[in-house]
Design goal:
400 residues; alpha/beta; 14 helices; 36% helix
């Protein structure tokens, strides 16, 4: 089997490393030799720490279009140009393995249609949660279930920051700088801290879990850049831990979002710390399940990429998963408990919540008036709180 690798950054290098290190096992599974014939790289003269001997290194994708290959691995990132490149390989009846959640969250249905038309695989396990095998799990291992909920800590950078704020009492700014120093956060961390990265992943998971096309532009997202350490510590004292979570729920319609949520400390997701990822799935047959592991990293992500490659080269093409209907996103009716911190006195808060019929427990924490409500619709809650000065408001999961 002959393959090409598009991109020779952190993940691309990891892919070559895994293919070389685990060569004997991989080839025993496939039943023949696997040869990397071409690598596409921006800088073909750059010194690299991996063995690329015998491989044609090129900065022209046209060289690979003309090559005799069976599959390509796309780990170079990007959206518009990369879309056209993947499209061309699919039209050439070449299998594609990609880790590109940015592209897939916007164009996966278009690419799947072309892949199915040309009877080739389009595999993307590494696009969500890195080394955690969640795509295949939902698509294959849980396919006997009607999935009602998928929820995940899908971004290691934000989970690291929130863990440092929770465990060590750090400020957001200090935790972010530490994440940058350790290589968990980019110089421009916007996609991570504003929830954009997690948004792309929950779109892909919701599409797969609920068999619906999901428009990323219809799913709201809120990041952690405005989270105050004060709220994290107050909630911690009350028995709650904050995580940035992508969540999709389906009954008659789909609700989906990304936002910071407080979990009861004994909830499984509350114990997922630092740069780790976890995905929590509820099926009507299996019940509650959780999948945990590294969300990024060279070899960790390459593990998922190469697993997809093995699947491509050993599994007959039966058609890639392709939802027929577009999801109707309706978040208005979802009910949560809420953590609320007020800049009002206790009597005013109690009077408003009681008048609105919203059950709650009030706490006084360092001159702050804090309430944990019973389950309530967000729109109803916002309407009820109109006369109060709300300093912080976050959903709560775990007491119901």
């Amino acid at each position: 089997m002959k393959i090409a690798v598009l991109g020779m950054g952190t993940v691309g290098s990891g892919v070559v490393n895994v293919l070389n290190t685990n060569k004997n096992k991989i080839e025993s599974l496939i039943g023949e030799e696997v040869t990397i014939t071409h690598v596409l790289a921006k800088n073909i003269d750059k010194a690299r720490d991996i063995d690329l001997s015998g491989i044609q290194l090129t900065d022209k994708v046209e060289d690979i279009y003309k090559a005799d290959i069976d599959a390509v691995i796309e780990v170079m990132g990007g959206i518009d140009n990369t879309y056209e490149i993947i499209l061309q390989f699919l039209k050439n009846r070449i299998h594609v393995v990609t880790a590109n959640k940015d592209l897939l969250a916007e164009r996966i249905d278009d690419l799947v249609a072309v892949a199915n038309e040309n009877e080739v695989h389009l595999n993307y396990e590494a696009s969500v949660a890195g080394g955690v095998p969640i795509i295949k799990t939902i698509e294959n291992s849980l396919n006997a279930n009607q999935i009602s909920e998928v929820m995940g800590i899908l971004n290691g950078t934000t989970n690291y920051i929130l863990t440092k704020m929770t465990v060590d009492g750090w400020t957001y700014d200090d935790a972010l700088e530490d994440a940058k120093a350790k290589g968990y956060a980019e110089a421009d961390p916007t996609n991570d801290v504003e929830g954009i990265d997690a948004l792309r992943k929950i779109v892909l998971l919701s599409r797969l879990s609920f068999n619906k096309k999901v428009d990323i532009n219809e799913v709201p997202s809120l990041g952690i850049s405005k989270v105050e350490s004060e709220d994290i510590q107050i909630a911690k004292n009350l028995g709650y831990i904050m995580k940035l979570v992508g969540i999709g729920k389906y009954s008659d319609s789909l609700s989906a979002s990304v936002e910071p949520i407080f979990f009861k400390a004994d909830h499984q997701l509350a114990s997922v710390n630092y740069e780790k990822n976890a995905v929590y799935v509820i099926g009507n047959a299996v019940g509650e399940t959780m999948y945990y592991g590294p969300g990024a990293g060279s070899l960790e992500t390459a593990s998922a990429v190469v697993s997809d490659l093995i699947d491509v080269l050993t599994t007959p093409v039966r058609g890639n998963f392709a939802p027929a209907e577009k999801a109707v996103i309706q978040n208005e009716d979802v009910e949560y408990q809420y953590y609320l911190r007020f800049n009002n006195d206790e009597s005013a808060v109690k009077s408003v919540l009681n008048d609105a019929g919203i059950g709650h427990e009030l706490n006084n924490e360092n001159t702050n008036v804090v309430a944990i409500t019973e389950k309530v619709n967000k729109n109803q809650l916002d309407e009820a709180l109109g006369s109060l000065e709300v300093a912080a408001k976050y959903p709560v999961i775990g007491d119901e």
